[in-house]
Fold:
Amino acid sequence: MRGSDGGLCAGATTDVCAGTTTGRVCAGAAGPGATLRTMDADRKIAVVTGAGSGIGRAVARTLADAGWTVALAGRRAAPLEETSAGAGRSDALCVPTDVTDPRAVAALFAAVRERFGRLDLLFNNAGTFGPRSAPVEELGYEEWRSVVDVNLTGSFLCAQAAFRLMKEQDPRGGRIINNGSVSAHAPRPHSTAYTATKHAVTGLTKSLSLDGRPYRIACGQIDIGNAATDMTERMRTGTLQANGATEVEPVMDVADVARTVLHMAELSLEANVQFATVTATAMPYIGRG
Ligand SMILES: NC(=O)c1ccc[n+]([C@@H]2O[C@H](COP(=O)([O-])OP(=O)(O)OC[C@H]3O[C@@H](n4cnc5c(N)ncnc54)[C@H](OP(=O)(O)O)[C@@H]3O)[C@@H](O)[C@H]2O)c1
Structure:
C-alpha cells in the first residue's frame, strides 16, 4: 500500500498486463494515440471524485458492491483508503487528486488508463460550498474563486479527461454523471458562488450530452437536496431560510442517493437519465422562497 503520492489502496496490486490477477488489463502497453482495448470486457470501471466522504464514499462503495471496479479521487489519501477498505473489493485504486489542478487530474486519468485500460463511468462529485455563507456584497474574491475552482473548473477538467478516454477506447463510449444540486435550480440565501457554479454544472452536463452523442458518451446529472453529510451538517442545527428565519431541515440517508446513481450508471449507453432530482421528502425545496 502506498500513500499520498498517488499510490494504491490496500489490497490493490500494481500488475498491468498480468493476464491473471486483479490488474488484468492491457493498458500500459498502449502509447499515446493507441486504441485502448480492455482484456476483461465484463469489468466496469468507474472514477469517483470526492470519494473520501459523504456522497462520494457511499456511491463508490455501492458501485463496488454491485461489481464495479472503482478509482477513488480526493485530496486526502487516508479517507480514500477508508472508503476502499469498506468497499468489499480489493481492486480499488486510490489516487489522491486535487481536481482544481490540471496536472493532478491528468495524472488521475493516466493512472486509470494504465491500470484498467478503459473507463465506463465518471461520477463527477467533488464539490464545496465554500468557506462560509455570505451575502454577495461581502463575498471575497478568493472565496468565490475557491468554489469556482472546485465545482466548475474541477468538474470540467475531470469530464474532459474522461471524455477523451471514453472517446478513444474500444469499445468506445461511457457515461459521465455530474453532481449538481437543487441549488442548480433554486438558491439558498447567501450562496452566490455555490448556486452560480451549480447552475454552471447544468450547462456542462448539457454540453457534454450533446458533444458525446457521436461517441456513445452519455452525460446525466443528479441534483440532490439534503443528504446527510458533513456539507449539510448545518441542516441539523438550523439554516437560514428565504424568509429570514433559521430552521432545522429534514435530511435523507446518502444510501438513497447512491442507489439512484447506481441506477443511472447501469443503464445501457442507449439510455440516459438526463436529470434526476433526489431530495429529503419533507425539505423546504418545492416552494422554497
Ligand atoms: N449533501 C447534500 O445534500 C448535497 C446536496 C447537493 C449537492 N451536493 C453535492 O454533492 C457533492 C458531495 O458533497 P457531500 O455532501 O458528500 O460533502 P462532503 O462530504 O464535504 O464531500 C465533498 C468531497 O469533495 C472532495 N473535494 C473537495 N475539494 C476537492 C478538491 N479540490 N479536489 C478533490 N476533491 C475535493 C472532498 O475530499 P477532500 O477534502 O479529501 O479533497 C470530499 O470528499 C458536492 O458536489 C456537493 O455540492 C450535496
